[in-house]
Amino acid sequence: xTITIVGAGLGGLALARVLHVNxxxxxxxxxxxxxGARGQGGMLDLHSGTGQRAMREAGLIDQxxxxxxxxxxxxxxxxxxxxxxxxxxxxxxxxxxxxxVDRADLRNLLLDSLPEHAVCWGHAFESADNGLLQFADxxxxxxxxxxxxxxADSRVRTLLTDARSAHTGQNVVExxxxxxxxxxxxxxxxxxxxxxxxxxxGQSLSAQRNGDGRVRIYLSFYNTAEDWFATSGIPFGDxxxxxxxxxxxxxxxxxxxxxxxxxxDDTVLPRSITTLPVGLTxxxxxxxxxxGDAAHLMPPVGQGANMALLDGALLGLALAAHPDDFxxxxxxxxxxxxxxxxxxxxxxxxxxxxxxxxxxxxxxLAFFQPG
Length: 371
Ligand SMILES: Cc1cc2nc3c(=O)[nH]c(=O)nc-3n(C[C@H](O)[C@H](O)[C@H](O)COP(=O)(O)OP(=O)(O)OC[C@H]3O[C@@H](n4cnc5c(N)ncnc54)[C@H](O)[C@@H]3O)c2cc1C
What we know:
The chain is of the alpha/beta class. It folds into 2 domains: 3-70 and 99-165 and 276-355, FAD/NAD(P)-binding domain (3-Layer(bba) Sandwich), CATH 3.50.50; 166-274, D-Amino Acid Oxidase, Chain A, domain 2, CATH 3.30.9. Helix content is 35%, strand content 22%. The chain is built from 13 helices and 17 strands. It has helices spanning 10-21, 51-57, 61-67, 103-112, 180-183, 185-191, 228-231, 239-249, 255-262, 293-296, 304-321, 326-355, 360-368; strands at residues 3-6, 26-29, 43-45, 75-78, 84-88, 100-102, 119-120, 125-129, 132-135, 140-142, 145-148, 166-177, 195-199, 203-209, 215-221, 269-275, 288-290. Strand 1 (3-6), helix 1 (10-21) and strand 2 (26-29) form a beta-alpha-beta unit. Helix 2 packs parallel to helix 11. The longest helix is centred in the C-terminal third of the chain and has 30 residues, at 326-355. It is globular, with a radius of gyration of 21 Å. The protein starts with a strand and ends with a helix. The mean pLDDT is 95. Residues 6-12, 29-32, 44-45, 124-125, 149-151, 155, 271, 292-294, 300, 302-306, 308 line the site of flavin-adenine dinucleotide (FAD). Flavin-adenine dinucleotide binds next to helix 1, strand 3, helix 10 and helix 11. Its cofactor is FAD. It is found in: Cytoplasm.
């Protein structure tokens, strides 16, 4: 019986690892040509009950703790005029509730824990029928169970549901300041060791220190159209001019915030934020299932990677418990996954609503400090 996983993201790799730990082989087909072919983005915080639970089931919790950053849990929340609303600094002996980790380090940890040929790079999934997978390069492979772990724009999803991801109204520009301690020590002190959020009316700036000394900056524009990047006047092909335009879009904000934009290097990446309907389900179908963003794409407010990892781990455990009955394993997995990820999706949607609303900073403060 062949278990075939499409997508070597966090969810697909967690599944492959838990299967491996339980003595079950699986093959992962990934469209990227190698592990380093594409940047993996910034930091993730792994929650003790979900993402870290998955790492425990994968037998990798000690290795995870070795690369996790406790101080990454620090948080500063500000208003556009510079008012500091909340500052939480993590004590050195604080529990590792939500430590941060570089996404690339986490992915490398999972990749290194698998047998050498477990991931077949350069295989872009095209279609599947009657136990045969087709790839874009004309090659093919067989499967008894096909798991779609192919992310936000999943192609495998179409085998189970007609649901499509839709634009949330949020458009994000990602920038970054390399080696900030050396190049801009004043800005480094301002951002601190973890997450730095400035929430305005329909716009936000968040900065996040990464393990390699880079600070990633995300500029969000809420309630904007799907084609907003085309009409925004941001010249993405000319990074210096793009920074000038972005500073212009933050007119009226405290000059310390626009100084962060001015200090960025030439990485200027547009990211359009889409989601699947909250609570999406499908009738269980023998031979197919989905996990991670392919199953439940939600706003990027801290749950997606945690859910993807736990999906992978729990599907692996279900398959290990029913090695001769994949259909039963998939049903058991999907029942739990639908309930858990619907709750996470509802919570993420609520946070997204706060972020995109007028007076977002005060509402977020109330969210962090209820009562
Ligand atoms: C800006 C931003 C910030 C975020 N921050 C956080 C955070 O702080 N915390 C958090 O928990 N989540 C966060 N998320 C969400 C998180 O990144 C995702 O939920 C998570 O990566 C999903 O994992 P996955 O394995 O399902 O998919 P992915 O990590 O997207 O992996 C999918 C893989 O499938 C491959 N693939 C795609 N199509 C094919 C194909 N046709 N054939 C073969 N391979 C294919 C891709 O190349 C990729 O390697 C953030 C997302 C964004 C956009």
